Amino acid sequence: MANIYVQLTGGTSPGPYTVYADTINSNPIEMNVSATRLIASITYNIIPTPTKIILVNSNPACNNAFSMEVTVPGITPTPTQTSTPNTTPTQTPTLTPTFTPTLTLTPTPTLTATHTVTPTPTLTATPSSAPFVPITINLTIDAGNTGYTQIYYPLTNGGAVLLRQTLTSTGTTTINVPTNNTFYVITLQQTRVYNYQLSQINYRINGTPDAGSPYLQSTLGAQNILSNIPLYSGLGYPTVTFGNSYVVDTFIGNQRE
What we know:
Layout: E1 2-8, E2 17-21, E3 30-33, H1 35-40, E4 42-46, E5 52-57, E6 66-71, E7 111-117, E8 132-141, E9 146-153, E10 162-167, E11 171-178, E12 184-191, E13 198-205, E14 208-209, E15 215-217, E16 223-225, E17 246-253
Parallel strand pairs: 8-17
Antiparallel strand pairs: 1-4, 1-7, 2-3, 2-5, 5-6, 8-11, 9-10, 9-12, 12-16, 13-14, 13-15, 13-17
């Protein structure tokens, strides 16, 4: 078992950050970590020992472009024996590397990691956070039309559902919502070529449209909201559950089937 102590010693971005071991294509060690916690330092128990730690700023304003990584080389412990018989050798190898960020958002951000090898590992159970559910959001804007799609969701389990991202051109994005939390999207048509053109939202769960799809709005400048009180309680926003797949297709222009 390797105890990895991670501490952010510079920078002004509040985060949140995502912590990975070895590669950002792996399951993250932890998501939505605030800068306050990182500055105070966090200890992670990682098996097997990683070759490097990667820190990604997942603040929507940074578009996940700010990342830092540091190599954690293997350390051979140097045991020290006391004069008392039958005592267990102890070693405290340490490493203090400095992260070099691939994109500098704040003046000279650095990250300090200390690697301690424990000869007799003891596993301690820690409560896990709610798993995150990926949701794919698509926007298609037909020629001669303008508008946007806005995406609202919580960053943490039970957190506030706030505007996190805006799409203004044809494209795709993926968001991660804590399981059993709500989210919603708003699509707004600003200009069009023909009077019959409109904004449309299709919401699919495991490949099947929900009973409210398609959500249509034909008035220019009026919000088309993914909200259906008969289907979803409270304000009518859908709730996601871990293990299901969710896709939201939004259109500005011609109506789709």
